[in-house]
Amino acid sequence: MFLIPETPRWYVSRNREERARKALQWLRGRKADVEPELKGISKSHQEAERHASKSAMLDLLKKSNLKPLLISLGLMFFQQLSGINAVIFYTVQIFQSAGSTIDEKLCTIIVGVVNFIATFIATILIDRLGRKILLYISDVAMIITLMTLGTFFYMKNNGDDVSHIGWLPLAAFVVFVVGFSLGFGPIPWLMMGEILPGKIRGSAASVATAFNWSCTFVVTKTFADITASIGNHGAFWMFGSICVIGLMFVIVYVPETQGKSLEDIERKMMGRVRRMSSVANIKPLSFNM
């Protein structure tokens, strides 16, 4: 950590432009022309300062800031309501309930290793495929596997013979974890740093992180009660249904940020609000002759 410089935006916010230039040069390479990017950062900071209020919490409620904040909160919500932490924390119990032909402790190890490997694969694919494509893939994979797991447990609870597909829970868990790790695992955290405006990024990120951990607590705390109430099949179908809603949310509201600078993203998201407010202020033309 001692070798890593502060971010260029932090230096610009402290009027230390030369240090910001050196930080950019360190990040982009010695031969890179960092002046255009530095000018963009400075311009973005000046605009943020001009529109900022004295209260960081009041800034969060501004129309121009509310949309990116709500998108971040939405991504965090659907990340945790996919049931990922319930799956991770209750893996052994779930495999015991499934009566899997494979040892439940071995299954837990396999799921953990797959999660670890898939996260590294995601770092390679995020900038190649784009954020939204990976979120689509992630969501579809989770929907299919959660619905499959729900159907498996429903058949088992109804007394159907599922011994010939005893491998299915492990296969579904592996695909579910891979799907989550490729998209909804890392991307909500990544996009939080991309779409939140610079002036509120710190306070908004704190709110989004607290919201994420609150959702984690609720899901893990209530999972046992949910399964006791509606069964394992009902719990997995519920998580799968939430993932369907999450897919609609991504399609409609989440922007693609691949290949765009933070300044471009902020300008585009805030620009829409300004244009709409400008339209609202247009007075109707008079047709009196």
UniProtKB/TrEMBL annotation:
Membrane-spanning parts: 69-89, 109-126, 133-155, 167-191, 203-223, 235-254
Membrane-related topology note: Multi-pass membrane protein
Protein name, entry field: Facilitated trehalose transporter Tret1
Family per similarity comment: Belongs to the major facilitator superfamily. Sugar transporter (TC 2.A.1.1) family. Trehalose transporter subfamily.
Statement: the UniProt record of this protein carries the keyword Metal-binding: no
Keyword Glycoprotein appears in the UniProt entry: yes
Lineage: Eukaryota, Metazoa, Ecdysozoa, Arthropoda, Hexapoda
Residues annotated as domain Major facilitator superfamily (MFS) profile: 1-258
GO CC term, one of those recorded: plasma membrane
